[in-house]
User: Fold these one by one.
Assistant:
Number 1:
Amino acid sequence: MSYNQPPFIPDTAPFSDEQRAYLNGLLAGLFSSAPTSALAANPPSSLKIAVLYASQSGTAETLARKLTKELKARGHVASLTSLEGYTPATLAEERHAILIASTYGEGDPPDAVQPFFQQLCLEHFPRYRDLSFAVLALGDSSYEHFCKFGIDLDSKLAALGATRICDRVDCDVDLDDTFANWKSSLIERLDATTAALPARTSPSTSIAAPVAKPASLYTRENPFHAPLIERRALTCDVSSKLTMHVAFSIADSKLEYEAGDACGVVPQNDHRLVSEIIDTLKFSADVPVQLPKAGATKLWDALTTHLQITRLTRKTIQAYATIGQCQKLFDLLIPEQQSHLDKYTYDRGLIDLLHDYPGVLHDPADLVAMLPSLAPRLYSISSSPKAHSGEVHTTIAVVRYRSHNRDRGGVASTMLAERIAVGDSQPVYIQPNKRFRVPPDSTAPIIMIGPGTGIAPFRAFLYERRAVAATGKNWLFFGERSAATDFLYRDELETMRDDGHLTRLDLAFSRDQERKIYVQDRMLEQGAEFYRWLQDGASVYVCGDASRMAKDVDATLHTIVEQQSDLSKEAASEYVQQLKDENRYHRDVY
Ligand SMILES: Cc1cc2nc3c(=O)[nH]c(=O)nc-3n(C[C@H](O)[C@H](O)[C@H](O)COP(=O)(O)OP(=O)(O)OC[C@H]3O[C@@H](n4cnc5c(N)ncnc54)[C@H](O)[C@@H]3O)c2cc1C
Ligand SMILES: NC(=O)c1ccc[n+]([C@@H]2O[C@H](COP(=O)([O-])OP(=O)(O)OC[C@H]3O[C@@H](n4cnc5c(N)ncnc54)[C@H](OP(=O)(O)O)[C@@H]3O)[C@@H](O)[C@H]2O)c1
Ligand SMILES: Cc1cc2nc3c(=O)[nH]c(=O)nc-3n(C[C@H](O)[C@H](O)[C@H](O)COP(=O)(O)O)c2cc1C
């Protein structure tokens, strides 16, 4: 076969008609679109593959990096690119694209990827006829719009004429096995494509992967056991909430982080609740069980360390209903009853299901099979490695509430608050957040908006900027319920304000007067000055509650620009978009 004729799959090759048609289409597209010189330089037994990711907290990026490395090791010319700043036109130049995409908000793309997807949605012409693609969607099935962005991306690309290399796969939080299976089947498909191509004429060493910096030894799967070195309440005893400063030592770990990163905490369930569940079911804590990932263990360990028992998912209810043939639960599971299902699962856990529908489970294996994995929790790091060497600080709002005659607590936050002692070791890892960094120019001004635990990364930023003697101005908007009881890190912030490091500190204590006052009210009051800072090149950072605060603050930013600049609403939107494009508007919201 010469390079000047399109390669094809012979009829004798061991493929079904459908596979052969797919592969021939793929080869024709590949051949017709690649200039001969490019084929000569990159003989077609290696494919040029764009690995693209849409990530907010780094998971999709990490998986994309792993995949790229493996594709390179297999001789392909693989490139790794974020969809942030990427355009549909650049995608049209690719022949093979693998997309790994997480979902946020109401089933939206990660913040930074919204412009790409908005542009893609405007496309109608089937411009991707020459593109073969595969999508791995990342999500969390406890959200209503599970993996929605990956799903939308997959169908939009197909609608624009692109051909699937393999079907989309949706990953839940416990994604290792799903990722591994998807990766093998993807590679199998790609190998089938390359096997049909002429042998490579140049040695594969010419496209070997560059030597990568060794990744941290400690990961979500292999966390570091960090001693808890300090824990103190940041709110007063009489406050309506409890927020704590919790610090770990990483002195002996070689763990590295930067201000803006998050700390992953691998939690354990409350032993009292685990005992109650085992007693209710009349099981033995020592009975052996098999877990898909952890393998053989005892029921006690499975329920304490590996499985989510405090929240109910549709899948759990479905499995329970099937085992017990519970008609009432089946009724709740029909799509029209979604709002009733949501109401039932909103403030109940496994223990409620066992009491409300008793006598269903007789085999511990059924119990462990129906529960999702217990996922690590992330906490924005509130220390700077330059100021707090060998330590990681976190700022934890302790989740407690009462429902259906039971006091309940968030798994990780209550564990950090009361179930581990100073001196105990806690499994942690670093979750990099590369898009949430102090500006590289240390003279640039920054505006930080962080009510509640949103203060965490900004405490880190302030210490970081002080440690490197950054001369840029610092403005912080902080808000909480009441000044007397909830002014987190009050002494530190007031000291930094008094000595001039914190140029401005604007406070919004929502419950200290009849009318609620929030950080965005303070932003509006200072609109003229806020806009002056923006015009002087300030970067804006927002951290904290995603459900309401971040949206309201975003709307207020638009309003300030519109009011202070005399721009139209549309032009003000473009101004804010420009801030994003210039990496001057960053959000770390949850
Ligand atoms: C990038 C990132 C950074 C974060 N940074 C921080 C941080 O700096 N500080 C911080 O405190 N948190 C932070 N979080 C949130 C944190 O990861 C956890 O989600 C939080 O601590 C709750 O975890 P938990 O295990 O204690 O509670 P969970 O066991 O996860 O329980 C929380 C769940 O309980 C339910 N619930 C809570 N209150 C009620 C109620 N009143 N009625 C009914 N149901 C209720 C809700 O379903 C809620 O989702 C961050 C999250 C992300 C993604
Ligand atoms: N259920 C729980 O017990 C619990 C406990 C801790 C944290 N959380 C969740 O964890 C996240 C972070 O909590 P947190 O402790 O950091 O504080 P938070 O709940 O975000 O509250 C911090 C401050 O923000 C105010 N606020 C409320 N709505 C706002 C809005 N739309 N715009 C601006 N400010 C607003 C709050 O005022 P008001 O509260 O007076 O309205 C409070 O003064 C939130 O998602 C929160 O829902 C839940
Ligand atoms: C604030 C927040 C909102 C989320 N919203 C959704 C959602 O609507 N649907 C979903 O399937 N997953 C949702 N997730 C889960 C993430 O998509 C999932 O954890 C993913 O693995 C994160 O990938 P990333 O680290 O690459 O951003 C959400 C996670 C967070 C922290």
Note: The radius of gyration is 27 Å.
Number 2:
Amino acid sequence: MGIVKLDRCRIPATAVLGRPRAGLKVFATAMQWERTCLLAGFLGAAERDLGLCVRKLHDRSDREGSMLRHQAVSHRLARMQVKLDGARLLAHRAAWNIDQGHADYAAAATAKLAVSEAIVDCAQDGLRLLAGAGWCGEPVDFAKALADTYGGLFASGTSEIQLEVITRHLQSGHLEK
Ligand SMILES: Cc1cc2nc3c(=O)[nH]c(=O)nc-3n(C[C@H](O)[C@H](O)[C@H](O)COP(=O)(O)OP(=O)(O)OC[C@H]3O[C@@H](n4cnc5c(N)ncnc54)[C@H](O)[C@@H]3O)c2cc1C
């Protein structure tokens, strides 16, 4: 998002990261970590917000009773849970790969794609469910959550770039044998 200009930068040989000519590997390893871990905190926040949303909708009622009795409401909550659970499992798998020393860049891209899209979807769903209260930040500021999570769709590579990584992995696994 900005221009980096390197002008007469002399770096001592002792400052080399990895081995000379292995820069791509250093970058790929950093991306594997970043795409795996970057959004984990947002996932936790989304899970917390989902819980607050359930409580708020339970307590909010019309003349017939709690909002939660409407399936249009409860099913949206259930879908939020499913999206977050799936994203969490994919993040765990990507982190497990790092722990095991597996350079599985596609698993990291899959986790990043799934988590970034799940947290945006959940912020959007939460806002629709709480409507005016969500806009006003009561009990969750979903308008702010939406703005916060949206950047996750681009940071560490856009969704299209994650799909490119996954596509290359898919093709190398099935076409290049
Ligand atoms: C909140 C936030 C935090 C960030 N933090 C950092 C940071 O800490 N460090 C850092 O270095 N950068 C950071 N970034 C920058 C981020 O990595 C870039 O914005 C991102 O990689 C996209 O690059 P770009 O903005 O240049 O978009 P472009 O590369 O110009 O892409 C424009 C559009 O073209 C599409 N596109 C580009 N190439 C392809 C392709 N091959 N196939 C299909 N579609 C393609 C993209 O998906 C996008 O829709 C951050 C961005 C955000 C939003």
Note: The beta strands are 61-62, 65-66.
